Amino acid sequence: MNLSKLAVTGIFVLVANHCWAAEDSLIDLKFDLIQENIEMKGPTAAGGAPIAVQKPVQRASNCTVVIRAPNDVRHNKETLGTTFRDNPIISKPAVTDWLQDALLDMKKEGLNTSLATNADLTPSPAVTYLSADLEKIYVWFHSMNIHGTLVVNTKMQSGTGPEVPHHYRVISSKSNWASTDSEYVTTLNMAASRLIKQIATDIEKQCAAKVDI
Amino acid sequence: MPNLSHTRFIVVFVPMLLLTACAGVTRVPLDKDASSKLTNVESRIMIPADEIIVRAKASNISAAMGGGLIPALIDASVTKSRQTELEKIATPFYDKTDSIDFRTVFSDAFKANINDQKSLPAMNLSVSTRGFSKSALDEKKTKLSAGEGFMGMRIWYEFTSDLRSIIVAADTWLVTNDKADYKYKNTFVYLSKPVEEANPLGAWAQDNGKTLAETFAESAKQIAVMLKQDLEAPTNEILFASLAKQEKTKVVVPTYPLLGGDGYLLEQSDQRKTVRLESGIVYSVPK
Q1: In contact, B8 and B131? CB cutoff 8 Å
Q2: At A43, is the pLDDT very low, low, confident or very high (cuts 50, 70, 90)?
């Protein structure tokens, strides 16, 4: 087979492999905080490898955050993008449950978090309330990397004060090793971890402002 | 080992478009005998992408180095770094254009411009967020009754590498319950007029993305026009025998890898021209 025939065959194989997807990619989307830029301690005195150390986050204000169940306001509530082979990525658990778990995990960002209950319908002056609308969430590919995009709108209300809106767009990136479902989950968890870091910073500012008032 | 391929767009669409250069005619003309028997055509516009993605120019060191894992890893790292840098200028663009839903804009404009087609029965159009797998297509064909057809249109949309233009590509096909693969198949590519401003993303974001939304709608209109004309066009033998009397013209789409190729001018206005490549694929490009 000459080179040109080989090239044509190769392109046909690419088209055949990628234009027609096999099946949906059902992912088990569960939030797991992913720390980036973790401080490395070491090498150890015994000459061992450096050890990853997660520094505890300390906040100046003692913020108590009550999180209301997130709303799904996406235009596309069905898929989280498509896989490398163009199959739809679909989350088995509700994506809002995943986002809620991520927001509750802001306790690792130094905040006291809890989920809103019926008792929280009447605002308490000692609490900051957080509402979140999930606008977009999807996985995409570029070069050898997987990216995750997460767009969330929030409203923060300290006590009986006004609701303050915030808009967040976070993008995560990681190397694409094998286009596996777990890599899509990791990529989205990286995005959510970045998101809650930003939200926690804004909540702390709002808490601090409330204390000043 | 890492996955060595590029973006979904490049993986899925570019090979198809590059076939123009080396694989002959890919167009399957409308089977007039089969279409005359159709009484009902279910049509689905498939648009998986939720929004237009601002992608950094992909590094291509590995090509110069003859390929391999290490150069590919360098490419990935360089592209990732470029992408991170680009996000800073992409954020204001998205802040202004977040509310523009390509699916809605495109499908509304497409429906408005395809209604007067005469080659097929009235299309019952729906919009999907997913593609259509080969196995799903085979299953769909078995469920079609005599006189029923299923038309699919898979849409991709991207910025060109310089972020100045928008490419919208539509891979379109028609099947019936006949065992033959396609009763019609072709691809249409729309390339927008480039924005001239120094900051192209800023230009696209102006007036809350007015130009962006208008371009999305214009792409749907042009693709509908190209589809209508192509459905009416004759077999490839007759078509290309007629076109071969013309001088060839070249289409270049400034993206990586370069798209386009040699073709024949079908029509032109003050602003745009339509060119059929030697593969049968039709491009609508600015003059």
Answers
A1: no
A2: low
Residue B89, both tokens: 């200028």
Task: Kindly report, residue by residue over A80-95, the tens digit of the pLDDT.
Answer: 998 877 789 999 999 9
* Cα distance between residue A89 and residue A101, in whole Å: 20
Q: What is the dihedral of CA A162, A69, A83, B220, to 10 degrees?
A: -50
SS3 A44: coil
Residue of A nearest to B2 (CA): A177
Amino acid letter for position A44? T
Contact (CB, 8 A) for B72 and B4: yes
Instruction: Please report the ipTM that was assigned to this predicted complex.
Output: 0.84
**A4 vs B79: CB contact, 8 Å cut-off?**
no
Beta bridge partners of B34: none
**How close A209 comes to chain B (CA, Å)?**
26
Which residues in chain B are closer than 8 Å to A79, comparing Cβ atoms?
Answer: 48, 129-130
Residues of chain B contacting residue A145, judged by C-beta atoms under 8 Å apart: 76, 79-80, 83
B208 three-class SS? helix
Pairing assessment for the beta strands A145-158 and A128-142 based on DSSP bridges: antiparallel
The token pair that represents B225 in the structure block: 């026009």
pTM: 0.85
Q: What confidence tens digit (pLDDT) does each residue in B146-203 have? A: 999 999 999 999 999 899 999 999 999 999 998 878 999 999 999 999 999 999 999 9
B183 CB-side CA count, 13 A: 25
Longest distance between any two alpha carbons in chain A, whole Å = 79
Amino acid identity at B138: D
- Residue B9 is encoded by which pair of tokens? 């767009």
Q: How confident is the model at residue B205 (pLDDT cuts 50, 70, 90)?
A: very high
